[in-house]
Amino acid sequence: MSIKLSRNPQIGYVPRPVVIVSCSDGEKGADLVTVSWTGVLCSSPLLVYISLRPNRYSSGLIKKVGDFVINIPSVHQVKLTDYCGIVSGRKVDKIKASGLTLKPGVKTKSPYIYECLINFECIVKEIISLGTHDMFIAELVYEHIDQDILDEEYNIKTGNLLVSAFGEYWGTDGPLGQCFNIGLDFKAR
Ligand SMILES: Cc1cc2nc3c(=O)[nH]c(=O)nc-3n(C[C@H](O)[C@H](O)[C@H](O)COP(=O)(O)O)c2cc1C
Prior knowledge:
Blueprint: E1 16-17, E2 19-24, E3 30-35, E4 38-42, E5 47-52, H1 57-65, E6 67-72, H2 78-84, H3 94-98, E7 102-103, E8 112-113, E9 118-129, E10 134-145, E11 163-165, E12 168-171, E13 174-178
Antiparallel strand pairs: 1-11, 2-3, 2-6, 4-5, 5-10, 6-9, 7-8, 9-10, 11-12, 12-13
The protein binds flavin mononucleotide (FMN).
């Protein structure tokens, strides 16, 4: 048996997903924010969460409007995903810069990103201040899935979804580049 490094925990070693959350300002504006602190909380009702630092521009919008969309990027959107996690919507119109297509939500005021493989429309049920982050508990009320990634029984047949672990982005074929870094050379349109 190998020897374990046993010590107080560090967040960097906890594997997690990476998603782009889209949200609305309640009028014509919107924002995109990269989020790793996300996951499922309950099957029925279908509850998910995202955790945001209160100083994020997106956090204020979601508190005001009460909904958001979780967009699942593919490995081909790795630089864009990092970019949305490096710049703030307070300073940059990330939608314009990314050239992405936003479609109106069916059940949310927040729009979804058409180019992302999967989109989950979520309605906020509760916000809990945990410390550094506020946890937004939300009901997943509607979904959009790119039919190219589904087989005839609607199972996901391709495995090119983006995840993050150990400070890097990964696809199924291995590491793609460092978090908070690979998006620095994203070419805004
Ligand atoms: C890989 C990655 C994961 C991130 N995860 C989170 C997260 O879970 N919660 C959070 O508050 N910020 C997270 N961030 C940072 C925000 O995405 C970043 O501060 C963003 O610029 C905020 O944009 P906004 O001000 O337009 O909301 C992450 C950034 C990266 C690159």
